[in-house]
Amino acid sequence: MEEDAGLEIKAPSDLSTIDEPATQPKHGSFPPTTLAGKPRCFSVRWYGLFPWLEYSTSRDAVFCKACRHFPEATTVDRFIKTGFKDWKHISQCCLNNDACNRSFVERNREHIKVVIDLVLFCAKQGIPLRGHRENEEALNRGNFLELFPKISHYDPEIKRRLDDLPGNGKLTSPDIQNEILQIAASLLIRKIKTELHDETDSFYAILEDEFKDVSKRELVAVCIRYMHKGMIKERTVGFLETGDMDANAISAKILQVLEPLQLDPKLCVGFGFDGASVMSGNKGGVHMILKKKFPHAIYVHCHSQRLNLVLCAASKVSPGISTFFDVINNLQSFMTGTRRHARFIEIQKELRPGKPTLELERSCDVRWSSWSCAVSKVLTLLGPILETLADFSQSSGHSKIKANYFSRCRRKKCVFILVMFNRLFEMSEYATKGLQCSTISLTDCIDLIEGLKENYTTLRKTEADFIKLVTLTDDLMKKHDIINWDVTGSRKRRLPGKFGDSQIESTLGKASPVKDNSDLKNIRNHVLDRQIMELDTRFKADTYGFMRAAAALLPRSSTFGNNESIHPASTHFSICVEVAEHEVFVQQLKRKVTAGITFPSLVEVLDSCPTDIFPQMNRLLRALVTLPITSCTVERVFSTVI
């Protein structure tokens, strides 16, 4: 008997598992048990009073489902193993156990709140949750597990819960972390879906971009642009891996991401993609495939990327300009050497006391604003750069060879190009940053691009600006003791014999030497001509079809009130705007302008266009405002992947 008493009593096998609902059989009658001289039995009405209650037919006893799987949740052991069958006092015992369960549930809820906060904190900061090793002996168990001791130091209750909870109740496993992230993502998608369906005729645009991460996986990100409560929003709705990067595969991924949102295809006004052939192809491109499902959507090549391509073209306008940017990038690499970098920082502190030390940057075709930053940093740090090169030109080995190579920086041609591009990039930087804004409107885009064209055209025609550039160049030369004009043209090139009877005016790929200011002016004019040509090519007037319609709805525009200008857009989106409605709306805006009210963008115009009075004008304005201008939002999705 003593041996039998030491045996562990197990719960009956006819009860539910942790993933199943509580076992609650509803027999016609239950076997009676004589208690205090009276026959008593179990009643099904107790199921309604205590949902956690389970009845075991084999033992004619009740158990607590939560208590069986989490024994620390109760102080009544009979609800766990032996079963409770004191039918006379079952109500009171269940009430006591219920109170104990509530306390246990409340404790678990407080704990899961902490777990959720830590998981979402890591997700928001873009840092990994897991560690390389997560056992107790590991020095670093990962961000998620290492955060618990830190916050427990200031909140002993968290530490007590971690000590008291069983291993399967701490909620710190990787599966729990992933489930929390999935739930958070689904809730976010649900919120976006709700905003998209809050209003009737909620127009939207689709933004997409692709990227290859460090593990060589092809990734596709999808964002939705829409208007909610008078505000333009761009929200990421999907981030998927794809094994194929052709147009059909990318289109299938986009449709897969959009499916849970249950969007009306007729309300899609545009696609915001890059200019890759797989996206922009007029026969088999992604936008042509998607247009079969979204008939009113128009393809918009990201305007910010277009402007970046203009800047890239300017950096390759001639061999001399290409060499200049190669020197800038190689100079940045040169200054990253341990000894060279230390000396570079030391010289900065000597020559620029009280100012923060700066680092050189590289220009890159795919990094917007990198051209402006690279040129600006070299111009700002020209003195420390020249001093560092002078020091290492007196050393030996590889550093000496490289420093002598960079001696071309001590030429008037190089300094002039540096000053010139700094001036040009200062102008384009405002347009670059403006076009990267997610809330930019069509009319703002027109203003930025056309304004940049006008500025460059004015510079091309103005002699005073060239004189100013030369003056700044001469000041820098005097400050840094630069006397030479150029490094090219020191030796006359010998022509092949077959050209002996010919007159050679220029040679492809050969940089022309700079001897006087007229040569510098030719360089400047060549760059400006290429910039203006690229802007005219990549931002053609006919690509502004809908932009002109938007301009006609803006009071400060010269085409404001022109009914013919809005006709193409209203026809394309199947929005029937009556002439009378348009005229009355225009007159209303004119009266408001006379009263001193300003309308900087179409968003403010839309605010003055109530749906109940001007229903079709309101729809047209919302469609135009929703049209994508840039895909920078979806580009930023990959910022933590790089």
UniProtKB/TrEMBL annotation:
Transmembrane segments: none annotated. It comes from Dissostichus mawsoni. This is TTF-type domain-containing protein. InterPro entries: DUF4371 (IPR025398), RNaseH-like_sf (IPR012337), Znf_TTF (IPR006580). Residues 1-30 are annotated as: Disordered. It comes from the Eukaryota. Residues 38-118 form the TTF-type domain.
